[in-house]
Write a structure and sequence with these properties.
The chain is mainly alpha-helical. The protein has 9 helices and 2 strands. The two termini are 29 Å apart.
Protein backbone atom coordinates (compact mmCIF):
# COMPACT_ATOMS: atom_id res chain seq x y z
CA UNK A 1 0.00 0.00 0.00
CA UNK A 2 2.77 2.45 0.89
CA UNK A 3 4.62 1.80 -2.37
CA UNK A 4 1.41 2.16 -4.35
CA UNK A 5 0.61 5.44 -2.59
CA UNK A 6 4.09 6.76 -3.38
CA UNK A 7 3.66 5.74 -7.03
CA UNK A 8 0.39 7.70 -7.12
CA UNK A 9 2.11 10.77 -5.64
CA UNK A 10 4.95 10.54 -8.16
CA UNK A 11 2.52 10.09 -11.05
CA UNK A 12 0.48 13.12 -9.97
CA UNK A 13 3.63 15.20 -9.60
CA UNK A 14 4.90 14.33 -13.09
CA UNK A 15 1.48 14.87 -14.64
CA UNK A 16 1.17 18.31 -13.05
CA UNK A 17 4.66 19.18 -14.23
CA UNK A 18 3.99 18.06 -17.78
CA UNK A 19 0.58 19.72 -18.11
CA UNK A 20 1.16 22.67 -15.78
CA UNK A 21 -2.42 22.18 -14.64
CA UNK A 22 -4.18 24.87 -12.60
CA UNK A 23 -3.90 23.99 -8.97
CA UNK A 24 -0.69 22.04 -9.51
CA UNK A 25 1.25 24.47 -7.35
CA UNK A 26 -1.07 24.01 -4.38
CA UNK A 27 -0.89 20.24 -4.71
CA UNK A 28 2.91 20.38 -4.85
CA UNK A 29 2.93 22.52 -1.72
CA UNK A 30 0.66 19.99 -0.04
CA UNK A 31 2.92 17.16 -1.15
CA UNK A 32 5.96 18.99 0.18
CA UNK A 33 4.28 19.32 3.55
CA UNK A 34 4.02 15.53 3.83
CA UNK A 35 7.29 14.75 2.05
CA UNK A 36 10.37 16.97 1.67
CA UNK A 37 10.72 18.50 -1.83
CA UNK A 38 12.40 15.30 -2.93
CA UNK A 39 10.55 14.98 -6.25
CA UNK A 40 11.30 18.59 -7.13
CA UNK A 41 14.96 18.17 -6.23
CA UNK A 42 15.34 15.14 -8.50
CA UNK A 43 13.26 16.62 -11.33
CA UNK A 44 15.17 19.92 -11.39
CA UNK A 45 18.59 18.28 -11.02
CA UNK A 46 21.14 17.66 -13.75
CA UNK A 47 20.39 13.93 -13.72
CA UNK A 48 19.85 12.22 -17.09
CA UNK A 49 16.20 12.08 -18.18
CA UNK A 50 15.95 8.35 -17.48
CA UNK A 51 16.94 9.05 -13.88
CA UNK A 52 13.86 11.25 -13.43
CA UNK A 53 11.34 8.54 -14.23
CA UNK A 54 8.26 7.71 -12.18
CA UNK A 55 10.02 4.55 -11.04
CA UNK A 56 12.95 6.56 -9.68
CA UNK A 57 10.71 9.05 -7.90
CA UNK A 58 8.59 6.27 -6.42
CA UNK A 59 11.58 4.32 -5.12
CA UNK A 60 13.33 7.40 -3.70
CA UNK A 61 10.17 8.56 -1.94
CA UNK A 62 9.49 5.10 -0.59
CA UNK A 63 13.06 4.78 0.71
CA UNK A 64 12.87 8.13 2.52
CA UNK A 65 9.56 7.30 4.21
CA UNK A 66 10.60 3.79 5.23
CA UNK A 67 14.11 4.76 6.35
CA UNK A 68 12.88 7.76 8.32
CA UNK A 69 9.61 6.39 9.68
CA UNK A 70 9.46 2.61 9.78
CA UNK A 71 12.88 2.21 11.41
CA UNK A 72 12.16 4.82 14.09
CA UNK A 73 8.78 3.28 14.87
CA UNK A 74 10.25 -0.20 15.19
CA UNK A 75 13.09 0.90 17.45
CA UNK A 76 10.63 2.80 19.64
CA UNK A 77 8.51 -0.35 19.91
CA UNK A 78 11.54 -2.41 20.95
CA UNK A 79 12.65 0.24 23.43
CA UNK A 80 9.22 0.58 25.08
CA UNK A 81 8.89 -3.19 25.34
CA UNK A 82 12.25 -3.65 27.06
CA UNK A 83 11.76 -0.67 29.37
CA UNK A 84 8.37 -1.97 30.53
CA UNK A 85 9.65 -5.51 31.01
CA UNK A 86 12.66 -4.33 33.04
CA UNK A 87 11.21 -2.41 36.04
CA UNK A 88 14.63 -1.42 37.34
CA UNK A 89 15.42 0.28 34.03
CA UNK A 90 12.08 2.10 34.08
CA UNK A 91 12.63 3.29 37.67
CA UNK A 92 16.13 4.58 37.01
CA UNK A 93 15.17 6.34 33.80
CA UNK A 94 12.08 7.85 35.46
CA UNK A 95 14.21 9.11 38.34
CA UNK A 96 16.62 10.81 35.95
CA UNK A 97 13.81 12.39 33.94
CA UNK A 98 11.94 13.56 37.05
CA UNK A 99 15.07 15.31 38.29
CA UNK A 100 15.58 16.99 34.90
CA UNK A 101 11.98 18.00 34.26
CA UNK A 102 10.00 18.24 37.51
CA UNK A 103 7.16 19.77 35.51
CA UNK A 104 6.26 17.19 32.87
CA UNK A 105 4.41 19.82 30.85
CA UNK A 106 7.67 21.70 30.22
CA UNK A 107 9.97 19.67 27.99
CA UNK A 108 13.60 20.82 28.18
CA UNK A 109 15.68 21.55 25.07
CA UNK A 110 16.91 18.52 23.14
CA UNK A 111 20.50 19.32 24.14
CA UNK A 112 19.59 18.88 27.79
CA UNK A 113 17.97 15.51 27.13
CA UNK A 114 20.95 14.39 25.05
CA UNK A 115 23.22 14.98 28.05
CA UNK A 116 21.25 12.63 30.33
CA UNK A 117 23.56 9.62 30.75
CA UNK A 118 21.01 6.95 31.63
CA UNK A 119 18.44 8.03 29.04
CA UNK A 120 21.22 8.00 26.43
CA UNK A 121 22.30 4.54 27.55
CA UNK A 122 18.73 3.22 27.26
CA UNK A 123 18.41 4.62 23.74
CA UNK A 124 21.73 3.11 22.67
CA UNK A 125 20.79 -0.28 24.09
CA UNK A 126 17.41 -0.14 22.32
CA UNK A 127 19.22 0.64 19.08
CA UNK A 128 21.67 -2.21 19.62
CA UNK A 129 19.21 -4.91 20.59
CA UNK A 130 16.76 -4.03 17.82
CA UNK A 131 19.55 -4.54 15.27
CA UNK A 132 17.17 -3.75 12.43
CA UNK A 133 19.63 -4.02 9.48
CA UNK A 134 20.22 -7.76 8.97
CA UNK A 135 21.98 -7.69 5.60
CA UNK A 136 25.44 -6.56 4.59
CA UNK A 137 26.24 -2.97 3.62
CA UNK A 138 28.65 -3.61 0.73
CA UNK A 139 30.90 -0.92 -0.74
CA UNK A 140 33.52 -1.04 -3.46
CA UNK A 141 36.67 1.01 -3.98
CA UNK A 142 38.03 1.82 -7.46
CA UNK A 143 41.58 1.27 -6.27
CA UNK A 144 43.38 -1.58 -4.50
CA UNK A 145 43.25 -1.36 -0.72
CA UNK A 146 45.34 -2.81 2.06
CA UNK A 147 43.80 -3.81 5.37
CA UNK A 148 46.38 -5.07 7.82
CA UNK A 149 48.06 -7.97 6.01
CA UNK A 150 45.33 -8.35 3.37
CA UNK A 151 45.34 -6.81 -0.09
CA UNK A 152 41.83 -6.16 -1.41
CA UNK A 153 41.60 -5.94 -5.23
CA UNK A 154 39.86 -2.92 -6.73
CA UNK A 155 36.08 -3.10 -7.15
CA UNK A 156 35.78 -5.93 -4.63
CA UNK A 157 32.52 -5.67 -2.62
CA UNK A 158 33.41 -5.32 1.06
CA UNK A 159 30.84 -5.02 3.81
CA UNK A 160 29.72 -5.91 7.29
CA UNK A 161 26.51 -7.23 8.79
CA UNK A 162 25.49 -4.85 11.61
CA UNK A 163 23.50 -7.58 13.40
CA UNK A 164 26.63 -9.74 13.73
CA UNK A 165 28.57 -6.86 15.28
CA UNK A 166 25.79 -5.79 17.64
CA UNK A 167 25.32 -9.35 18.92
CA UNK A 168 28.97 -10.37 18.99
CA UNK A 169 29.62 -11.89 22.47
CA UNK A 170 33.29 -10.92 22.13
CA UNK A 171 32.21 -7.28 22.12
CA UNK A 172 28.97 -7.25 24.10
CA UNK A 173 28.78 -9.51 27.13
CA UNK A 174 25.47 -11.38 27.12
CA UNK A 175 24.36 -9.72 23.87
CA UNK A 176 20.79 -10.99 24.21
CA UNK A 177 20.36 -9.15 27.51
CA UNK A 178 18.90 -5.64 27.62
CA UNK A 179 21.50 -3.84 29.73
CA UNK A 180 21.78 -0.03 29.38
CA UNK A 181 24.48 0.02 32.07
CA UNK A 182 26.98 -1.44 29.62
CA UNK A 183 27.14 1.91 27.78
CA UNK A 184 27.94 3.78 30.98
CA UNK A 185 30.49 1.31 32.33
CA UNK A 186 32.21 0.69 28.98
CA UNK A 187 32.31 3.90 26.92
CA UNK A 188 34.58 2.25 24.33
CA UNK A 189 31.55 0.26 23.08
CA UNK A 190 30.47 3.38 21.21
CA UNK A 191 32.66 2.40 18.26
CA UNK A 192 30.69 -0.83 17.88
CA UNK A 193 27.28 0.85 17.66
CA UNK A 194 27.10 0.29 13.91
CA UNK A 195 23.33 0.30 13.42
CA UNK A 196 23.65 3.50 11.35
CA UNK A 197 26.72 2.30 9.48
CA UNK A 198 30.06 4.10 9.68
CA UNK A 199 32.11 6.54 7.68
CA UNK A 200 31.06 8.61 4.68
CA UNK A 201 28.31 6.16 3.69
CA UNK A 202 26.57 6.07 7.05
CA UNK A 203 22.84 6.78 7.44
CA UNK A 204 21.98 10.15 5.89
CA UNK A 205 19.69 10.88 8.84
CA UNK A 206 22.74 11.16 11.10
CA UNK A 207 24.17 14.10 9.18
Amino acid sequence: MMLQDMHTRASRYLTDKAMKKPGAESRQKSSRAALPPLFEHIHSSGFPVHEKSIHRLTQEGFSVVVAGGETSARILAYGIFYILTHPQVLRQMQHELDATMPDASKIPPIRVLEDLPYLTAVIKEALRISAIPTSRFPLTAPEELQYRSWMIPSNTPVGMTPHDVLFDPKVFEEPGKFDPERWIQEPHLERYLVIFGKGTRMCQGMR
